[in-house]
Design a protein that fits this description.
Blueprint: E1 3-9, H1 12-25, E2 31-37, H2 44-53, E3 61-62, H3 70-88, E4 92-96, H4 100-111, E5 116-119, H5 131-142, E6 145-148, H6 151-159, E7 167-169, H7 173-185, E8 201-204, H8 208-211, H9 214-227, E9 233-236, H10 239-247, E10 257-260, H11 265-274, E11 277-280, H12 283-291, E12 296-298, H13 306-310, E13 314-316, H14 323-330, H15 348-361
Parallel strand pairs: 1-2, 1-4, 2-3, 4-5, 5-6, 6-7, 8-9, 8-11, 9-10, 11-12, 12-13
Bound molecules: uridine-diphosphate-N-acetylglucosamine.
Length: about 350
C-alpha cells in the first residue's frame, strides 16, 4: 500500500517550493500526496496564479483561513489541519519554510504523533523579533526529517542540539524550480506591465520588520523615489505593503518609480532576468537573483542566506540612507552564479523523495 504524505502550503513562496518537490514526489511508486492549502494567501495574484503556472494539482483541502493576527491565523490553521490529519491518518506531514502555515502543520502533526518533514530546515537569522524565526526554530525542533539547503543550515541545527540522524543536506528546492522554469521565461512578454524592457531596478518589500514601522516604510519608499531619478524602479507590491503605504498617506509622484500588482512566478523570474539590480527583503528573491546572475541589496539587518553576503553577491542594507549610494555602485554588477554551487545541484526534490521513500518503506 502507498504511504500517504500530507503536504501543507499556504503562502506564496511555499507554492513554488512544493511544486518543485511534488513534481517528483507524485511519481514515486510508494507514496501518495494529499495537498492542504491553509488559505493564508488567497488572492488570485498571491495564490491561484501559482497553481496555474506551476501546474500544481488542486488542493485536496482548502481551509480558507485568510488574514488575521498571528494567534488568530495560526489557531484557525491548527484546528483545521488537526481535523484533516485525524481523518486522513497520513504516514508523514511535509511543511515548507517558515510561515504560520509551516508552524501550524508541524504542531498539529507532532501532537498526533505523525512525523514531520521540514523542507528548508536549519535557516536562522538569530533575530527572534521576526515571526519567521520563531516559526522555523519551533518547526525544526518538531521535525523528524530536516531537509537543509546548505551546510551552514546543518551547522545551525547541530548548535541547537538537533540530532544529526534526521538532518539531510539536499540543496535548495528553489534552485530546482529556477532550473526547471527559467528557460521558458526568457521569452515572457513583459510589455503588458508597461515597464521598461531592461535596465530597471526590481524592488520588493513586504517583511513585517520593514512594513510595520511607518517611518522605516516611508524611508524605504522615499529612497526608491530618489533612486528612480537616475534609474527606473519597478515594484510588484505585496498587498500588505500597499495597504500600509496608503494608511500613511504616501503618494507616488515619481514617473519612473512604478508600483505594479503582485506578479506570478514566471513573470517574477523574467523581471529578475531583465533587471539591472534587485532590491528586496524577501528570502526567495535573494537566492533567485543569485541563480539568475544579478546582484542583490537586501533591506534587512541580517539574512539567513549568509553565503551570498560572504561571496559578495548580496549586501545587507540596514540603514536606508545608504541605499541610494549603494545602488549607484552595484547597478548592473553581474554575479557569476556558475562559479560556486552554493545551493546544491538542482536535484533537491529528487533527493527528498528518495529519502522519504526509503524511510517510510519499513
Ligand atoms: C507571509 C509569511 C512570510 C512570507 C510571505 C510571502 C508569515 C508569518 N509570514 O507573510 O514569511 O515571506 O508570506 O509573501 O507567515 N494579503 C492579501 N491577500 C493575500 C494574502 C495576504 O491582501 O492573498 C495581505 C493581507 O492584508 C494580510 C497581509 O497581506 O493582512 C499579511 O498576510 P500574511 O499571510 O499574514 O503574511 P505575509 O505578510 O504575506
Amino acid at each position: 500500500m502507498r504511504k500517504k504524505i500530507i503536504t501543507i502550503v499556504g503562502a506564496r513562496p511555499q507554492f513554488v517550493k512544493a511544486a518543485a518537490v511534488s513534481r517528483v514526489l507524485r511519481t514515486a511508486e510508494g507514496l501518495q500526496e494529499v495537498l492542504v492549502h491553509t488559505g493564508q494567501h488567497y488572492d488570485y495574484a498571491m495564490s491561484d496564479i501559482f497553481f496555474e503556472e506551476l501546474s500544481i494539482p488542486r488542493p485536496d483541502y482548502n481551509l480558507h483561513v485568510g488574514s488575521g493576527l498571528h494567534g488568530e491565523q495560526t489557531a484557525a490553521m491548527l484546528k483545521g489541519i488537526e481535523e484533516i490529519l485525524i481523518k486522513e491518518r497520513p504516514a508523514a506531514v511535509m511543511v515548507y519554510g517558515d510561515t504560520n502555515s509551516t508552524l501550524s502543520g508541524a504542531l498539529a502533526a507532532s501532537k498526533l504523533h505523525i512525523p514531520v518533514a521540514h523542507v528548508e530546515a536549519g535557516l536562522r537569522s538569530f533575530n527572534r523579533r521576526m515571526p519567521e524565526e520563531i516559526n522555523r526554530v519551533l518547526t525544526d525542533h518538531l521535525s523528524q526529517w530536516l531537509f537543509v539547503p546548505t551546510s551552514q543550515a546543518a551547522a545551525n541545527l547541530a548548535r541547537e542540539g538537533v540530532s544529526s540522524s534526521g538532518v539531510y543536506t539536499t540543496g535548495d528546492v528553489m534552485y530546482d524550480a529556477v532550473l526547471f522554469y527559467a528557460e521558458r521565461t526568457r521569452e515572457e512578454d513583459l510589455s503588458k506591465l508597461g515597464i521598461p524592457a531592461t535596465d530597471f531596478i526590481l524592488a520588493t518589500v513586504h517583511r513585517a520588520e520593514n512594513t510595520d514601522d511607518g517611518s522605516r516604510l516611508l524611508s524605504i519608499f522615499n529612497a526608491l523615489r530618489e533612486i528612480s531619478l537616475s534609474h527606473p524602479v519597478v515594484v510588484p507590491l505585496h498587498p500588505r505593503t500597499l495597504k500600509l503605504l496608503q494608511g500613511l498617506g504616501w503618494q507616488n509622484d515619481a514617473s519612473r518609480l512604478q508600483l505594479i500588482e503582485p506578479v506570478g512566478y514566471l513573470t517574477m523570474l523574467a523581471l529578475q532576468q531583465r533587471s539591472a539590480l534587485v532590491i528586496t527583503d524577501s528570502g526567495g528573491l535573494q537566492k533567485e537573483a543569485y541563480f539568475l546572475g544579478k546582484h542583490c541589496l537586501t533591506l534587512r539587518n541580517e539574512t539567513e542566506w549568509v553565503e551570498l553576503v560572504e561571496h559578495g553577491f548580496n549586501d545587507l542594507v540596514s540603514d536606508i540612507t545608504h541605499l541610494p549610494a549603494l545602488v549607484q555602485s552595484r547597478y548592473k554588477r553581474a554575479v557569476d552564479s556558475g562559479a560556486c554551487l552554493l545551493y546544491g545541484d538542482g536535484k533537491s526534490g529528487q533527493k527528498i523523495t528518495e529519502i522519504l521513500t526509503a524511510s517510510l518503506r519499513d
